[in-house]
Design goal:
Layout (H helix, E strand, L loop, with lengths): L1 E10 L8 E3 L1 E5 L2 E2 L12 E5 H11 L12 E4 L11 E3 L4 E7 L9 H6 L4 H4 L1 E7 L1 E4 L3 E5 L2 E9 L1 H4 L6 H16 L3 E9 L3 H13 L4 E5 L10 H5 L5 E2 L1 H12 L12 E4 L2 E6 L3 H11 L3 H8 L6
Parallel strand pairs: 5-6, 12-13, 12-14, 14-17
Antiparallel strand pairs: 1-2, 1-6, 1-11, 3-4, 3-10, 5-9, 7-8, 7-11, 8-9, 15-16, 16-17
Helix pairs in contact: 5-9, 8-9
Length: 310
Amino acid sequence: MKEVKVVSINISTEKGTIKQPISKAKLTNKGIEGDAHAGLWHRQVSLLGIESIKRFEAILKRNILPGEFAENITTEGLELMECQPLDTFSSCQVELMVTQIGKSCHGDGCSIFQQVGKCVMPKEGIFAKVRREGILKTGDSFVYHPKVFKIAVITLSDRASSGEYNDLSGEIIKQKITEHFTTKKRLYKTYYHLIPDNSELLKNLIVKAIEEKIDYIFTSGGTGISPKDITIETIKPLIDKEIPGIMEYIRIKYGQQKPQALLSRSIAGIAQNSCIFTLPGSTRATEEYMSEILPQLEHITYMLYGIDKH
């Protein structure tokens, strides 16, 4: 966690214009009261660091005042473009959630570009939504919290849980998660469970994970049609919104080469704010499913948090 100072708070009554500093602001669920960019959308509040402004001062060879790049909040203490969506900034009263890094530049059609000559916001500015309303004053400090994704991996297997053999599918899921989040430069924490094919144990783990706001829940095993395959019957009643397209696509894609893949009853869905994916227990199927699911995680998560990335 890092402390980030609020150097200036700036507002304007029109979009695309230089903003003027104010000593304090009221932040609501729409953004900064009185600012043209306030509204029920994902770019309510813009932030730009003094660190970025100083670099542009060297290029323009003149001082740049807070608000000249139309940022709502001028900060000091963190290179803001290193942030990622879903990171948060919290002060005593206010909390902001990062929703976007940079933006499209309107070029010479923008009054800021016309007056200043260049704009740093497209590359180094960030945008946020208000998550906790309150008063923010110049001189206040934010605490920066990078988003840490919480992931539960649950393998169902009587034989593996009894020690008869190692849980290879669970290890593959954890390995793929590590590769994915490392590549994305995202922080994450994985919680691993190996249990027998027991509906009550599985339900308790899923319910607890949902209550603890686990971001992603992956299960392995129990998706077939044998009497011991209880994963789908256990989890489906806990899902608020099913996402059928992911699993349908995987079954069709791999079922063309391996017809037995069509017998999988795997499902995906949302329970409160947790994403749940039920995978078959075979190692090959686990590899295939993870290769198709992981690229979808980011967009699914943004949708859950109301971030429009279209």
